[in-house]
Amino acid sequence: FMMGLIGILTGALSSVREIVKEVDIYRRERTVVLRLFPYVMSKVWVGVVLSAYQATVFLITKKVFVNPQLDDGGYLAMYATIFLCTLSGYMLGLLISAASPNQNIALFLVVIVLVPQFLFAGALLPRDLMPGGETLSAVTSTRWAFAALVRTTGIGTDIINDPCWQLPKEEWDDLTQEDKDRLGCKCMGSQMFDACRFPGIRSADFYDEEAQAALGAEKPGEPPTPTPYPTLTPYPTLTPPPRPSGILADQEDYEQKLRQQGTEYQNLRQAQGTEYEDLRNQQGEEYRQLSLTYGEELRAWESDRGKSVRGAEGTIAKIYEDYGWTFEEETRTGWLALGVISLVVLGLTVVFQKRKDVI
């Protein structure tokens, strides 16, 4: 935005006195041989040369001190945009100069005319926040210069080509990381820090060393499901003691041994069942503890990653909502608009200068 504004501002200031300072000479020469259109075009020619020079100096300075990552075509597009910005400002200054009765008024009018260039460019404030902002923005040179320069730098190219950001706004928050991976989104989700080219998403406010470590860490693995213990192998059926002879004492001894054998067998089975149950309970408790630890690690992993991802996505969302139109605007459209504005201003300059023939 500042590149376009500076170009328009310097262009306007360099031409605001070009016509008004010669008003007496113009009227005298006009009565002799001077023709209106060649006179105005002589001023325009100076503006073309000045705009070309300023665009060259501006671009060289930008390259030396900022070094934007652009290809040769990008630098040519930036040069053309700065040239048209400066020329548009120069033409605006000529119009003010032609419409002003004296030099003091001309300088005052420059301030009045340039204020809308600040307000309605759509950079300092979103255009929809101001009544009539969309309409007034269409006739301000800074709006078209701003959009053309943003498009030239390509900072929004990854956003407008990202399938996630092209979904309705209401669906953005509902997307899971799996959805973002499935759709192949480069500028939404944890992969954005490596794949997305957009300024501000690697801010230290949310992409600090802790977040980087979390993003680089593997997702905690789920604990393996325990293998159930095999079903108990029952003890073999008891072999009863030999039956006694018909003597009563032997019969009683037999029954006592039989009861003792049954009790011992029952105790063995109960001990076996208790041991089996204890082993299963121990296995279940170990699995529960592993699951709790896994849940805590997973929440911490998701929280650390989510902090940085949400911060970066929030940055993109805010800029895209307010300035997404500059990402989608074609550079040639901006050039055409700047050219049309300059031609309209040139026509108005001729009209105002013509009035001096009778005033």
Can you describe this structure in just a few lines?
The chain is mostly helical and 359 residues long. 68% of the residues lie in helices and 0% in strands. It folds into 2 domains: 2-154 and 329-355, no CATH class; 183-320.
Task: Please give a handful of descriptors for the protein shown.
single chain, 359 residues, mainly alpha, rod-shaped, 68% helix, 0% strand
Give me the secondary-structure topology:
Blueprint: H1 2-15, H2 23-30, H3 36-65, H4 72-99, H5 103-119, H6 133-137, H7 141-153, H8 157-160, H9 177-183, H10 192-195, H11 209-216, H12 248-328, H13 331-355
Describe what you observe in this structure.
The chain has 359 residues and is mainly alpha-helical. It contains 13 helices and no strands. The protein has two domains: 2-154 and 329-355, no CATH class; 183-320. It has helices at residues 2-15, 23-30, 36-65, 72-99, 103-119, 133-137, 141-153, 157-160, 177-183, 192-195, 209-216, 248-328, 331-355. The model has no long low-confidence stretch (mean pLDDT 79).
